[in-house]
Queue: 4 jobs
Job 1
Amino acid sequence: MNIFIINLPDATERREFQQKQLTELGLNFEIINATSINDISEDTYKKHYYDWQRPLQKTEVACYFSHQKLWTKIAEGNQPALILEDDVALSKYTPNILKELEKRTNLEMVNLEVFEKKKTIAKISQTIGNHQLFCLYQDKAGAAAYVLYPKGAKKLLQHQQKHGIALADAHLHNCPSLQSYQIEPACAVQSMFCQKYGIEQYDIVNTSCIEYKKSKEKRSFIFRVKRIVGQVKLGFRQLSFVAKSDKRYIEVRIDDFKR
C-alpha cells in the first residue's frame, strides 16, 4: 500500500521523525510537500471564503489542499493509500493492519487514529487481525491518519464540487455518501495527544500541519445560516443510525506504541 506523508519542506524535525518511525516499522513511504499559505493566492482564498460554516484561515485552506492533492492522486489510481500528517505516532501493528486493509476492496475510508472526542460507531464490528473494524457514523475531528480508497477519494472530490471546501477533517467526516470505518484499538495518535493517552511523548512540535487561531471577526448572517443548516442535517443523520450505534471513546493500547 502506498503511504503518503504530508510535510512542509521546512518542518525538518517532523520529516526526520516520520522517516525514522516508518523505517523502523518496515514501511515504504513518500514525502509529499504540503501546500503552504504562500501557495494560496488571494483569489483562491476569496473564492472559498464562504464555503464553510465560518471563515477559513489561510492555513486551514492550505491544509485542505494538501489533503485534496492526495485525494486526486488516489482517485486517479486503483489502489488505496495511507495518508499521514507529519506529527502522528503509529502503533507497531500498523504494518499488519495495512496488509489486511489492502485486501479489502469494498471499503472507502478507514480511520486509524484516536482523538480526544467521542465517536459514533456501530455496535457490531469485523475482526481484522487483533483489531476490530467498526462502521464509523460520526467523527468530530481528525485527519492525521486514514486509509483512503479510490471510490472514497472520488466521493470526497465530488462533495467539494457541490459544496466547496472546509476544514480537511470536517470535509472528510461530513461527506454523507462516504462509507467510513474505524480501527480499534487505534493505530495512530497525534503527538499533541500522546501524553493524554500515556504514550511516550515524541520530541516534535505538538501541532498538526496547521495552527488554529480563534478569529475575532464577527460572523456574518450567511455563516450563521450555514451553521444552522449544518446542525439540522447532522441531527437528521444522527436519527438514522441512533439505534445501531454507540457514542464512545476509541480504545488505545499503550503497549502497541512501545518500540
Job 2
Amino acid sequence: MKNLVILGGGYGGMRMLHRFLPNHLPNDVQITLIDKAPYHSLKTEFYALAAGTISDNHIRVAFPEDPRLTIKHGLVEKIDLDSKAVLMQDGSTVPYDDLVIGLGCEDKYHNVPGAPEFTYSIQSIDASRKTYQMINNLPHHAIVSIVGAGLSGVELASEVKESRPDLKIKLFDRGKFILSAFPERLSKYVQGWFTSHGVEIINKANITRVEENVLYNNDEAIHSDVIVWTAGIQPSRVVRELDVEKDPQGRVVLTKHHNLPTDEHVYVVGDCASLPHAPSAQLAEGQAEQIVQMLQKRWNNEPLPDELPTIKLKGVLGSLGKKHGFGLVNDRAITGRVARLLKSGILWMYKYHNG
C-alpha cells in the first residue's frame, strides 16, 4: 500500500482531498494528512476573526472522512528527503511514498528589530485569536497600528474600525499610496473609504524598529497600544530549512509538473511554491488540481503532459467592513456593495460546497 502524505490542510491540501476522495484514489494508495489543527481554516477570513466580527465557527471547515484517510495532528519538525520520512516534533516519524508539502507561510519581519517580539499577527488562527483578545480588551480611544497596507492590512484596518469605531487606527504603508499593486481607481476608492471613516494612513513609512507599545517610523517614535504586522510573508520554517533550490523569496523551485527537480515523488503546493503569481488561496487550489492529475498519471504509469495549462486566476476581492468592498474580477475593477456581496457569496460556496 502506497502512502501519500500531505503536509498541511490548507487550501491546496483540502482541494486535493476533495479531488481524490471518495472516488478517485487508487485502491493501493492511502492518504495521511498532517496538520496541527483538527480542521481546515479559512485563512482569507482571519482578519475578521482578529477584529472580532466573526467567531471561530465561521472559519472552520471539517476535513473529509474516509477509511483511506488518516489524519495525524501535530507539528512537523523536519522533512528527511533521503529517507523519505517526515519527522514530527513529538518524536514520531511518518514515512511516505509520495509527499505534498503545503505548510503555508509565516510573517516576514525584514530584520526589523523587535518586530517578532512586540507585534501581533493574523497569519494563523491561533495568532488571530490572540490579536482579537488584545484588540477587544483595549480601552476607549486606544491606538491600533497596522504595519502593511496590502490586502490583509486593508481588510484588517477596515474591519477593526467598523467593529471598534472608538479606536484610533493607523495604517502604515511603504508606498506612495495603499494597494499599489491594484489599479489607481481601486486605491483611491479604498483611500477614500478610510478617510471618511477616520482611519489614518501613513504613506512612505519605514518601520526601523519596534519596542513594547512603540513603533518607530523613520526613527520617529509612535505610541501604539497594539501593533499588528501584515507587512510580508515567507515560507514556513520547515521549508526554509530544506536543502533544495529556492527563488529569491525563499520559495521552492519546481518543475513544470510541480515536483522537486531532484525528486519526482515530492511536490510543493501553495505559499511555499515558486510560481509566477503572488501566493493566494485561488492559486493553491489551481495548483492542487494539477498535482492530483500528475499523481494519478504516475500511479497509472502514464506519460506526463509536455506542458500544463496556465492556472487561471479569476481575480481578487477585498472587504471594507461588512457592506463595502473592492476587487478585480476578470481584469475589471469593481467597488462598493457588489464587490462585498461577491466575496461573501464565494466564501459561502467554498464553505458549504467544497469550493
Job 3
Amino acid sequence: MKTRALVVAGSLALTLSLAACGNDDEAQAAEAISASMMEESDEDFPVDQEQADCVGEGMVDRIGVEQLQEYGLLTDDLEVAGQVTDVTMEEEDADHAADVLVGCVDAQAMLTEQFAADDTMGEQEQECINEVLDNDALTELFSLMFQGREDEAADNLMGPLMECMTG
C-alpha cells in the first residue's frame, strides 16, 4: 500500500510540476510577444505596455505556445523570431490573432488619427473612411495579413477607400 501511495503522490507531483512549467512557458511566451510589440511600436502604430501585454497574452491563449513555435513566431527558447506581423498562419489562427489585435489595440482610432492628419481630405471623406475602417473590416484585414495574403487585404480595402476619396 505504501508503494502505491508513493507512486500516486509522485505522479501527482509530476503532473503539477509539468502544469506549472506549461504556465511558465505561456507567461514567458506572452512576455516575449509583448516586448517585441513594444520594440516595433512607432509613431505610425503606437502601442502602450497594456496593449502589448494584451496581445501577447491573447495570442498565447488563443493560438498556443506550440503552434506559435510551429509558425516560427517563437523560438524553442520562447523568444520572438522576427516581427509578430511577419508570421504566416492558417486561417483559423489568423482569425484568432486578428481578433486579439483588434480587441487589444484600437487600430481604428490609430488609422482615423493618421487620416485626420492629412489636411488635403475634407470632413466628409474622413467620416467615410472612419465608416469603412470599422472593427469588422480591420479584423478581416489583419486576418488576411496574418495568412500572408497582403495583396488581397490591400485590394479589399482600396476599393472602399477610393470610393470615399472620389465621392
Job 4
Amino acid sequence: MALLEQWRTYAQEQQEKKGAKFWQEYFKQETEFYKAILQSKPRKSTVQSYAKKFGVDLVTMTGFLDGINDSLKTPNDLESIEADSEVSLAYDKELLYKNMVEAKAEWLYNLPEWEPLLTQERRRELYREQKQSKTVVKGPKIGRNDPCPCGSGKKYKKCCGRDQ
C-alpha cells in the first residue's frame, strides 16, 4: 500500500477513534514542521530522512507532504511515494501563505517565522487576495425593457427573458 493511501486510512481511523483530539495533536506537529520549513532553505531528501529529521513516522510525514504539496514549486507525485522516494520541499512562499489562508489555518499563517519572508503589508495583501478570490460577485440584473444581452437588438422580455 502506498504511503499516501496509508496516511488517508490512518487519519480516517484516528479521527473515528479520537475525533478532534487526533487533529489537535497532528496540527501541533504540523506547526513545528512549518516552523522548521520556513526557517531553512528547502532541499531534496527522501521521505524517510525528512521523517527522521522532524521526529515523526513515515505516515505522518506523508500527511505533511500532502498538506504542502499544492504550494510547492514542483509538486511531488504523492500517489507513488515510498519511504526512499526523493521529495522536494521547495515552496512558493506567497502560494503557501494563500493556501494556509484558504485552509483557515490561522495557527500557521500567523507564525512569526513568516516575518523575514514576507512583510506584514504583503501578508495582508495576500490575505485579502485569497479572501476576495472566493467571493462570488453577481453581475447587474437585466431589466425587462433593457436590450437583450445576446445581441439580438430586441428587448430582453421579448427575447431571452421570455418564458419558453
